[in-house]
Write a structure and sequence with these properties.
This protein is an alpha+beta fold and about 200 residues long. The protein contains 3 helices and 10 strands. The chain is about 20% helix and about 25% strand. It starts with 12 loop residues before the first helix and ends in a 13-residue tail after the last helix. The chain binds 2-oxoglutaric acid and fe (ii) ion.
Length: about 200
């Protein structure tokens, strides 16, 4: 959806207006989250959003999980971390999203009108490991907005934030073009391991 918005005709007519409105509003929320995260890190308020361009590329995915006759044998989405900077997720009332917490899968139950914000690999405080399980009663719908889309920010290089480095806090990862990071992460697939360890210095 950003930096180049889709042509209206590229969005199915029945959801066109909703998708356009939702994208506009959710980018404001994403921008605000990035400002708050910058402040929390002791950086200038616009550091992540403006200087690093973390909100420039935005992808929107609408996920549909059909009900499954044998939920114990299937997953909706396998164990993974999101690749971009942050993901803002809105889920319906069905539930199924789980995150790894202290080595265990923990449910993230839907809360009416609440959004879930996931830290992704590109931000890496510690990107959240998650998956979606399925059920045999009803289908589930979720919408995810990921900020930091490597396919639209091709020429940008990302690495440790220089302002946060010191002798006591040396860099852990090397820099990489965001396009290369996305390409390699997708190529590897959602197997529960992020591509980040490959960048360790
Ligand atoms: O459907 C969900 O709740 C999460 C989907 C997800 O993790 C993803 O699309 O990356
Ligand atoms: Fe995800």
């Amino acid at each position: 959806m950003a930096p180049e918005p889709l042509e209206p005709e590229q969005i199915p007519a029945c959801i066109r207006e909703n998708v356009q409105d939702f994208s506009e509003e959710i980018s404001k929320v994403g921008g605000l989250m990035l400002e708050l995260l910058s402040e929390a890190l002791g950086l200038a308020v616009n550091h992540l959003k403006e200087e690093m361009g973390c909100a420039e590329g935005m992808g929107l995915a609408c996920n549909y999980y059909p009900h499954c006759p044998q939920p114990k044998l299937a997953l909706g989405i396998t164990h993974h971390t999101d690749i971009g900077f942050i993901t803002i997720l809105s889920q319906d009332h069905v539930g199924g999203l789980q995150v790894v917490h202290r080595g265990h899968w923990v449910n993230v139950p839907p809360v009416l009108e609440a959004l879930v914000v996931n830290i992704g690999d590109m931000l890496q405080f510690k990107s959240v490991e998650h998956r979606v399980i399925v059920n045999n009663l009803e289908p589930r719908v979720s919408t995810i907005c990921s900020f930091g889309n490597g396919f639209t920010l091709k020429s940008r290089m990302y690495g440790p934030i220089k302002e946060l480095l010191s002798e006591e806090n040396p860099p852990i990862y090397r820099e990489i073009f965001i396009e290369e990071f996305f390409f390699k992460s997708y190529k590897k697939g959602f197997d529960g391991n992020s591509y980040l360890p490959q960048l360790k210095l």
